[in-house]
Amino acid sequence: MKTRSRWQRFKESYFLHDFLHDKVALTSFCILAVLLFMGFAAPLVAPFNPYDAHNIDIMNAEIPPSWLPGGDTTFLLGTDAQGRDLFSTMLYGMRVSLIIGIGAVCLQAFLGIMVGLVAGFMGKRVESILMRVADVQLSFSTYMVAIFISAIFQAMFGVAKYEEIAVPLLILVIGFAEWPQYARTVRASVLAEKKKEYVEAAKVIGLSQKRIMWRHVLPNTLSPVFVISTIQVANAIMSEAALSFVGLGMPVTQPSLGSLINVGFEYIFSGSWWITMFPGIVLVLLILVINLLGDWLRDFLNPKLYKG
Amino acid sequence: MFAFIVRRIAQAIIVMLIISFIGFAIKQSFGDPVREITGVSVSAAEREKIRDELGLNDPFMVQFGRFMQGAVKGDIGRSFFYKKSALDVILSKAPATLELVMCSALIIVIFSVPLGIYSAIRPKALFSRFVMGGSIVGVSIPVFLTAILMIYVFSVELHWLPSYGRGETVNLGGWRTGFLTLDGWEHLIMPSIALSSIMLPLFIRLIRSEMMEVLENDYIKYAWAKGLMPKRVWIVHAFKNTLLPVITVGGVQLGTMIAFTILTETVFQWQGMGFMFIEAVERGDAPLMVAYLMVVGLIFVVVNTVVDVIYGLVNPQVRITGQK
User: Largest CB tally within 10 Å, which of A159, A165, A285, B258?
Assistant: First the structure.
């Protein structure tokens, strides 16, 4: 049986078959792959470097997209209010959004899995306290918590310092705001797994509690974690955009998609719609394909997403 | 049941205490009240004397106790910018936010119930698929983008609707309402649609999935077998039982809704609490920020507690499992 490699087994799996026959999932995946590539390879793909002041000329400000009258073919999608090439700025912005989104999800998954595991295993007092905290925080809605924490941070550090360390701060803020989701999911599946026979068997052969927790139960709780992770990445990107939009996120000098939309909004009344609309379209597309993929994954894996 | 209510209220009070504590800690770390009172030309010794008189040198917990005493009486600090009681500032802005939230909630209920029911009972119909597809697109569009798009189309290009502010308002015993003037209504249309756009898809999906679950139940099959009219089965038998989870989620979503008023109000410069909060953040007006935190926290806690208690009243399972 060992003759078939992992790759071959993957190729014959139902997972791949189902994926390839679902047009929506396949298209979403392709678009997401393109977006991810463009985002992370922004320095290679983008025609200009928006962080390099040499490329920026204020005389080029607010040039419309190249197919409109007054457009310039060097700037495919036009320029923003500071004279940066919008296409390049958007790619760099998408990279910032993706880094923050993925970073925040890693953090919240780490926090949530820890809390969920501990709560599920310890039971009693520890569990009820941890879960109460999670419930209360969840009832405040993640956006609210994120907006408050970042507002406090901004008041604490001052605007200049805040903008300097905005990326790690935003990861921290969004990660901290959304961990309860994971904690609840993990705890619910730990509770379900704990009753199963293999855990009993592991106990009988004398494995330590720690080993059972990490090597036996944790891997079996990962399927729901996987499903919510996709949706959570979309949520985190959306939160980042929202924070940037109200001025609590990325600064204009190092824009994310959200702050580009924010900047562009001021110019929409003078008719420069492209500064807002193109980043907006990319943001929606990014979130939409992640959501669609998440939906497909949920339908396919169909884990019991415990309502808790 | 009584024990359940008591426990829920005790929990609410603890949460409120924690929120106040956080708020107080924030307030302590920003700004110096003495400097606010005295200005520059006062010696250090005199400052120290004023500090003593105001009790600013007392231990942290003593000051917190004093802060809580004030908070219970409705005194939660003075805004640096407005130079008046923070609570008054918030109360003067609250009607705008409440009107906005009320209109959006109305839009959500009017559209989500029929659409959700329809797509549950005819899941294969073209229109249902269109609704479900539209709802996932709707979830993926951030609320501020919807708002900007509407401003661009209806205000900048078509000049149909005003793009910012509340328009003409009428003062009804301290409650400035926009409901009584045509101008007020015109200003209300876009913000309330924008605000509802994020929750509407969520509720459609929720009602649909709950309804589909209920329709699988035996008692529905029995109702069909009895030969009841389809309308009666759907509305009286099935829909009534989907309402319970919908109401709970609705209560919880209120928090999200308030968070989104911050975004919506910022886009439309709607003179409500959310816009005031963002302005307070920009101005570094810490007391007003803290006051907003406490007022919004109180709203959340009260609503969640009430929803939980109602849920406990309607569904005995919750009470019993909570008791173990």
Answer: B258
Quote the CA–CA distance of A111 and A178 in Å, as a whole number: 9
CA distance B32 to B44: 13
Q: Measured between CB atoms, does B142 come within 8 Å of chain A?
A: yes
pLDDT value at position A106? 92
How many angstroms away from the CA of B43 is the closest CA of chain A? Answer: 27
Asked if A148 lies within 8 A of B139 by C-beta distance, the reply is no
Q: What is the pLDDT of residue B32?
A: 62
Maximum mean pLDDT: which of A58-72, A92-106, A201-215: A92-106
pLDDT, tens only, A83-128:
777 888 888 888 889 999 999 999 999 999 888 888 888 777 888 8
Our count of domains for chain A comes to: 1
Task: Enumerate the domain spans of chain B.
Answer: 31-73, 89-289
* Burial of A20: CB neighbours in 10 Å, binned 0-12, 13-18, 19+: exposed
pLDDT score, position B141: 86
Give just the sign of the alpha carbon dihedral A166, A168, A171, A175.
Answer: negative
Tell me, what CATH number does A255's domain have?
A: 1.10.3720.10
Comparison of pLDDT for B30 and A228, the residue scoring more:
A228
> How far apart are alpha carbons B91 and B95 in whole angstroms?
7
What is the distance between the alpha carbons of residues A12 and B231, in angstroms, rounded to a whole number?
47
pLDDT at residue number B323: 45
Residue type at A268 in one-letter notation: I
Q: pLDDT band at residue B36, thresholds of 50, 70 and 90?
A: low
Distances (CA, A) of B59 to A157, B32, B63: 25, 16, 6
Nearest beta carbon to residue A284 from set B145, B252, B281: B145
**A138 contacts in B (CB within 8 Å)?**
252
Helical residues (DSSP H) of chain B, grouped into ranges: 2-29, 33-38, 44-54, 60-72, 86-121, 126-140, 143-150, 182-215, 218-225, 230-232, 240-268, 273-283, 286-314, 316-323
Could you tell me if B140 and B151 are in contact, meaning their C-beta atoms sit under 8 angstroms apart? no
Contacts of A151 in chain B (CB under 8 A): 277, 281, 289
Q: How far apart are CA A161 and CA B126, in angstroms?
A: 53
- Tell me the count of A-B CB pairs closer than 8 A: 101
Q: Identify the architecture of domain B89-289 in CATH.
A: Orthogonal Bundle (1.10)
Residue A16 in domain: no
Is residue A162 included in any domain, yes or no?
Answer: yes
Name the DSSP class of A63. Answer: P
| Residue A103, in any domain of the structure | yes
Distance of CA A69 to the CA centre of its chain: 37
Q: What pTM did the predictor assign?
A: 0.82
Vertex B119, ends B250 and A23: CA angle to 5°?
A: 110
Enclosing domain of residue A180: 31-307
Contacts of B263 in chain A (CB under 8 A): 242, 245-246
* ipTM score: 0.78
Residue A1 lies in a domain: no
